[in-house]
Specification:
alpha+beta; Nonspecific Lipid-transfer Protein, Chain A; 47% helix; Maleyloyr_isom; isomerase
Length: 259
């Protein structure tokens, strides 16, 4: 599948970080994040900002090996002060995007995944911020929107991540094989062409853009499909429709946890 442009990913890191900052400004930073219950809203923001600075350091130094988060300058907020957290988030996103723009998408650098490039990190940090902004919005009960092309690309990156961690030996993802049986169809009702078919086989699963019948279909607005698929909304929460074998969809969701 073709990616979006490097510049668009860079733009989204800044725009989505600004949206995250606006969401948490004035909110209870000690509130538990329902979709990430091990974190408070403050810890969620610190995770996002730390990820930005970590990726930025990898890109800036053209790292050929893993960098410990402890090695990243100002990798954590200096205090619990909300104003300092806000400034730290803004500065970290800006520095990372500056490094990504200077490098372009094709420089070789270390990554934990299937591709070691600066372009990988631009895409990864864009989607990291998109999904965690959703976590913050769900916690603070504010509005949340994503452009259709970015929501679709978030879904496709997630499929690539699940395939990678399965191949790398993740025990949960390893069960996503023909033994589960069947097919899953994702069908966005508000974005023409935003449909995917996931097919289980003996060697794992494959996916493609397609409008085809499946054992189970997940139907609804594209953003909500993306959030359910990324385990941010419940499939039975009323914002999407599940048609067919709901247990198969539950099986997929239970076995696609990253990190």
């Amino acid at each position: 599948m073709s990616r979006l442009s490097h510049d668009l990913y860079c733009d989204e890191i800044i725009a989505r970080t600004d949206a995250l900052r606006a969401t948490i400004r004035g909110a209870d930073l000690g509130a538990t994040v329902p979709s990430c219950p091990d974190w408070t809203l403050r810890e969620l923001a610190a995770h996002v900002g730390g990820a930005h600075r970590w990726a930025g350091e990898i890109v800036r130094t053209r790292a050929t090996g893993a960098i410990s988060p402890d090695q990243v300058p100002e990798g954590r907020p200096g205090s619990d002060d909300p104003a300092e957290l806000d400034a730290w988030l803004a500065e970290g996103a800006a520095r990372t995007v500056e490094a990504l723009r200077a490098a372009g998408p094709d420089e070789e650098v270390w990554s934990w995944a299937w591709e070691g490039s600066t372009g990988f990190w631009a895409r990864r940090m864009a989607h990291e911020t998109i999904v965690h902004h959703a976590d913050a919005a769900l916690t603070a009960r504010t509005g949340y929107e994503v452009a259709p092309e970015l929501a679709a690309d978030t879904i496709e990156e997630w499929l690539e991540i699940v395939a990678f961690v399965r191949a790398a030996g993740d025990k949960r993802a390893a069960e996503l094989t023909g033994g589960a049986g069947g097919t899953i169809h994702l069908h966005a009702t508000d974005a023409p062409g935003a449909e995917w078919l996931i097919e289980f086989g003996e060697d794992g699963f494959a996916w493609r853009r397609a409008h085809e019948k499946a054992a189970v279909a997940l139907r609804g607005p594209l953003t909500d499909i993306m959030l359910v698929f990324n385990r941010r909304l419940a499939a039975d929460g009323g914002r999407v429709e599940v048609v067919g074998d709901a247990e198969l969809l539950d099986f997929w969701l239970e076995h696609t946890v990253f990190g």
